[in-house]
């Protein structure tokens, strides 16, 4: 039996209603919903004996999730927690009577009075929310909180496969800027209720995975590669007895994206250029097991690690659940978007080229629907991915953001570049943009555009550029460096790196990209030289600015800043703010507006 979560692309109300489904892997026609509740259902976890499914649901009190238990024998689901603050995560333990929980403290009576009386001034550093380890006894329903880890914020748990101790990752706080750089690793003994500290881990540590080696137990995890925060993710492997740590992926030309525990050696998913590699982390490895076109995401595995399930997509099919041996091939179990089968799509092909300094680069080209490259030149829109530690994989390119197939349906060729700074080509490739954003990565993009012009695919007089988040930065940067683009789209883009360091969720990470902070001295600062706002006086290209009003990752002030500068210099532009939206646009009407408005914008400037 396999379980998966089905979620809509957008929401129409205040909540994103999701569904948990069960499918018999031997007979997919027997798939069915686990419950009939209207709720946000998430984080399904099997019990150790695979007879019970635990999951989170907020069906009783929307936005407050509790652990529910579904017994496969009779198909009934019932809540097993009623924790006032809600449950963040859960882990069924080898002892079938126990479940480990992550949950914040419940409100005290004093706190409730303060909220009711509006005596709720926020003192930074005081009464900050902390997720704590808690233990649920299924026999009694009692939740206890072990007195361990002090006031640290618990972020992840993983039990040793033999039913031994819990590996626990904690941070000094839940602050998204400060906390991830203060990670520590601990072992918690369930029998004695005591903890052993193993010290600091690298920034953004996650994905704990135990494995048995000849020298005893090992504990691996993913984290950012030191010393630069923008250097991509690596697999760090701790030999528990000797407490020695090794970076197991430092010299590889690909980047680990997922790490999964089995009863033996963990499985590692790697971004490998435009495609994906699945490997086993053994003493001599990682050892490749299989390779997959495009992306392989959200991997799940049997305890033995011999069978896997994952989300994969092809160039012309959206992501669906696939299952099969770890060595491949995989077969599809779901078909969640059958309505797309009848829609004509543009031809998609890998694009390999070289940077100005000779570095090998890749990306994707999507041609207008019904056209071949020989039918060019076409108006070309270049869409830059976010991150910058992200990538375009050779998978289905249709989403709520202005995407390649959405524009290809309107007659555009679309270039999806993978400039340096992204994932898929090893740590050095990712680290090369730290403090140098907008430099070589910008010329990487331009060389791809120049190649498409030289090959007759792109019309040099009808070029557009677009992107969101870091891609939005690149779009705003581009129009301050050149007049070659006739239109630009900037979605939640970074306009001033100093301001983002001061106000964004991940300030220190942004400082690593921009090269400095506003408190680095009087200035001028290195980040000024790589901020689009510094070049606003040069912009002549019409710009469409889109931003969510509640964005805390790249706050709305970034777009306000650019809007005021463009208005000051008399640049043609349009500025749209989406209420209630964060860094991603989630409401259906807003998503439709983004799609229609951006295509109309490029039609206005590139199709005339």
Automatic annotation (TrEMBL):
Pfam families: Peptidase_S9 (PF00326). Keywords: Hydrolase. It comes from the Bacteria. Residues 404-607 form the Peptidase S9 prolyl oligopeptidase catalytic domain. PANTHER family: DIPEPTIDYL PEPTIDASE FAMILY MEMBER 6, SERINE PEPTIDASE S9 FAMILY MEMBER. This is Peptidase S9 prolyl oligopeptidase catalytic domain-containing protein.
């Amino acid at each position: 039996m396999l379980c998966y979560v089905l979620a809509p692309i957008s929401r129409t109300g205040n909540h994103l209603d999701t569904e948990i489904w069960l499918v018999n892997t031997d007979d997919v026609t027997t798939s069915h919903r686990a419950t009939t509740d209207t709720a946000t259902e998430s984080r399904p976890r099997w019990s150790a004996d695979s007879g019970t499914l635990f999951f989170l649901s907020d069906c009783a009190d929307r936005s407050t999730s509790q652990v529910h238990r579904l017994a496969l024998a009779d198909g009934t689901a019932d809540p097993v927690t009623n924790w006032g603050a809600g449950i963040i995560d859960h882990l069924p333990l080898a002892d079938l009577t126990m479940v480990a929980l992550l949950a914040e403290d419940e409100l005290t009576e004093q706190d409730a009075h303060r909220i009711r009386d509006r005596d709720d001034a926020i003192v930074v550093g005081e009464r900050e929310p902390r997720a704590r380890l808690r233990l649920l006894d299924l026999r009694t329903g009692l939740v206890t909180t072990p007195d361990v880890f002090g006031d640290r914020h618990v972020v992840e748990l993983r039990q040793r496969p033999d039913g031994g101790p819990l590996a626990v990752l904690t941070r000094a706080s839940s602050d998204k800027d400060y906390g991830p750089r203060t990670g520590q690793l601990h072992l918690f003994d369930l029998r004695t209720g005591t903890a052993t500290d193993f010290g600091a881990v690298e920034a953004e540590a996650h994905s704990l995975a135990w494995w048995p080696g000849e020298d005893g137990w090992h504990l691996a995890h993913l984290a950012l590669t030191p010393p630069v925060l923008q250097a991509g993710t690596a697999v760090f492997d701790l030999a528990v007895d000797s407490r020695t740590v090794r970076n197991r992926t430092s010299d590889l030309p690909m980047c680990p994206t997922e790490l999964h525990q089995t009863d033996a050696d963990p499985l590692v998913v790697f971004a490998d250029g435009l495609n994906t590699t699945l490997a086993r982390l053994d003493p001599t490895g990682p050892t490749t097991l299989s390779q997959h076109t495009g992306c392989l995401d959200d991997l799940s595995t049997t305890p033995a690690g011999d069978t896997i399930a994952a989300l994969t997509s092809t160039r012309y099919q959206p992501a669906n659940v696939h299952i099969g041996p770890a060595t491949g091939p995989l077969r599809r179990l779901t078909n969640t978007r059958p309505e797309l089968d009848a829609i004509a799509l543009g031809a998609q092909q890998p694009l390999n080229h070289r940077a100005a300094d000779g570095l090998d680069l890749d990306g994707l080209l999507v041609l207008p629907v019904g056209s071949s490259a020989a039918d060019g030149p076409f108006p070309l829109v270049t869409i830059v991915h976010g991150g910058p530690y992200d990538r375009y994989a050779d998978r289905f390119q249709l989403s709520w953001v202005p995407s390649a197939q959405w524009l290809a349906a309107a007659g555009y060729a679309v270039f999806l570049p993978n400039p340096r700074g992204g994932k898929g080509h090893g740590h050095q490739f990712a680290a090369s943009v730290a403090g140098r954003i907008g430099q070589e990565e910008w010329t990487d993009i331009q060389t791809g555009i120049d190649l498409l012009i030289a090959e007759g695919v792109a019309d040099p007089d009808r070029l557009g550029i677009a992107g969101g988040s870091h891609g939005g930065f690149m779009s705003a940067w581009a129009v301050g460096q050149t007049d070659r683009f006739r239109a630009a789209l900037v979605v939640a883009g970074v306009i001033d790196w100093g301001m983002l360091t001061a106000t964004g969720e991940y300030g220190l990470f942004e400082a690593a990209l921009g090269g400095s902070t506003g408190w680095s001295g009087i200035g001028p600062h290195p980040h000024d030289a790589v901020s689009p706002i510094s070049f606003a006086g040069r912009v002549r290209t019409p710009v469409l600015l889109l931003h969510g009003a509640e964005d805390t990752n790249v706050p709305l002030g970034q777009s306000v800043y650019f809007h005021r500068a463009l208005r000051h210099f008399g640049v043609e532009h349009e500025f749209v703010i989406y209420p209630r939206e964060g860094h991603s646009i989630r409401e259906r009407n807003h998503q439709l507006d983004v799609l229609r408005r951006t295509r109309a914008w490029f039609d206005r400037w590139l199709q005339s």
